[in-house]
Each structure stands twice: as structure tokens, then as C-alpha cells.
């Protein structure tokens, strides 16, 4: 699924998420550039010179190299070698910045807005390297920075980065990597070839962008700041209690996890152990297709859990729903608080 398909009236945030969550990455540079822009938070019309963004951009890459040495699919990279050399102490910060300006932006600026061979409709900067030595911030980025969801975009980019580099680091085909959910700590993790666990990222951070920053059920705003009342809960669409009714560990699959506001999950009139209606089942299918449209281990995980073909996945959900309905006999619908987005 193209990132903006299935979304009603895509917003500026949806365009940004399309770039971050759906790009086919051969290097992690796009994530580093995205996080740098979010951190700098420039205003409309600002010229970001390469020498100004280079220290921040390189800093994100050197930080990731400390925990995951594989930052791309290419067998070697002169720029990443410089970053590694900096981490080892044999390259100074001034040398790192100089090489970042020289080598670090060669392809990422051209490819930043590209998803599935085309640019997203909204551009967040214009390339002025040849004329002014940097990139010019557009109105779209300025508008993005004023949106309530802006603060969550850094966490979403980091989660996506962690998922992508996991498949590179484990040196396994993505088809062999399964992402698991730790319900106690609400983390996504993977197992390497020796069945050793590698924690990847927060399940909230990984799932939020694919729900467009809204509660899955009522479309109220949710935010990834734990101190806010709108901090979401990780909910099992088909209730977790089904594990004790013969449905087994498949209930904990990524395909069955959504982010919900507290009121929908366990407030007065909340879902609790009821089964959402079939209308919401269709929404779960759409959300899962958003995840499958993304080129990282969550794609292969969901396909193994629910079916290789789109039609098979739809049948899987319908059959599972019928089996659960026969067991629980309680249906639930939320009171919608916002416009239905997908």
C-alpha cells in the first residue's frame, strides 16, 4: 500500500510520516537528516547551511554506530568509516564535520522526499546546495512544527531507524526475522541466529505513526509523552484474555496490537474484554496493511502471522473474528471523538 492510500485527506503529518515510515532505505541517512531537522526546528524560509546541520547529523549517526555498526546495505562506506573513526578517537570533531559536508549529504537530500519512486506531495525543504550551500525550509515544515503531533515525530523516526538497522545488524534475511512483543515492558524485540534477544524499540513509538497519532478506536489525539493524560495504552484488539481460552500466543502478535486512549481501553464504557465490531475489524486490516507497506521487519512479521497475500490476510482476520465472537459473545463500539482517518 502506498503510504497515503487509505488515509482520508492526508495531512502534512501524514506526508512526513510517509517519508520516514515507508522509504526503501539502503542507508540510515534519511533518519539522521529527519531527526536533525526536527531537533533544529527551523522556520519557514530559513537557509540551513550544510556546515550548520553537519555536526547534528553526524552526531546521530555516530551515536547509532556505537550500538549498531551496520548502518546500511552497502559493504563499505567512506563516510561511515569516518564516523567510526570519530567514535574510536582517531578523527577530531572538526575533521568529522568537514567530511560530513563533503560526503554525508551526497544522496540523502535528493532522495529525502522520495517514496516508491515518487516524491510525496508536500516538500519540507528545497535543495539550494549549489546556489547557497544548504537547504531552504518550506512553509510545510513550519506548519508541521506548529502541529500538536510534532513532538512525537522524533520518537517515531528513532523507532523506524531501530527496526531497519536491526535487520541489517542481525545479518539475516528480513524474511527470517520475527519481531516479538514483550507485554510486560511494552517493547518490541527480535532474536538473532543464536536465539539471543535484542530489544529494538518501544512498541508505542513503533506503532504510533501507523495510526497517524490517534487512538485506534475513537480517533482522539494521543501523544508519546508519558507525562500527558493522552499517553496511549498498548491494547490487544482481540482481548488478551483469549490466551486462556485456547487461542494461544498468537494473541500477542503485532497484528493484534493497537494504541488506544485510556478511556477506550479501560474507562467507563471502555472496551475491556469485549470484541470490537466488524467495522473496527476492517480498520485493523487497514492499519496492518499500513505496517506491511513499510519495508522493515514488521512487514515480514505480519505477513507470517496473518498471510502472505492481501486476500489471505483479510480471510485470516474474518475467520479469527468469527471464532472469537463464538467464544466471547460481547461486541463493543467506541464513542468517536474525531474524524475517522482510515
Provide a compact summary of the structure.
It is built from 14 helices and 12 strands. It is an alpha+beta fold.
Characteristic key phrases:
342 residues; alpha+beta; 2 domains; single chain
Your description of this structure?
By secondary structure, the chain is an alpha+beta fold. It folds into 2 domains: 12-145; 150-332, no CATH class. It has 14 helices and 12 strands. Strand 2 (114-115) and strand 3 form a beta hairpin. Helix 2 (29-40) packs across helix 3 and helix 4 (78-88) runs antiparallel to helix 5 (93-104).
Instruction: Name the beta content range.
Output: 5-15%
Span between N and C termini? Answer: 13 Å
Return residue spans where pLDDT drops below 50 for at least 5 consecutive residues: none
What share of the residues lie within helices? Answer: 40-55%
Which descriptor suits the 3D outline?
A: globular
* Count of runs of 4 or more consecutive helical residues: 14
- Alpha-beta content class: alpha+beta
Secondary structure tally: strands: 12
Task: Write down the secondary-structure element order.
Answer: HHEHHHHEEEHEHHEEEHEEHEHHHE
Side-by-side strand order of the widest sheet: 1-5-4
User: Over all CA atoms, what is the radius of gyration?
Assistant: 21 Å
Largest β-sheet summary: 3 strands, antiparallel
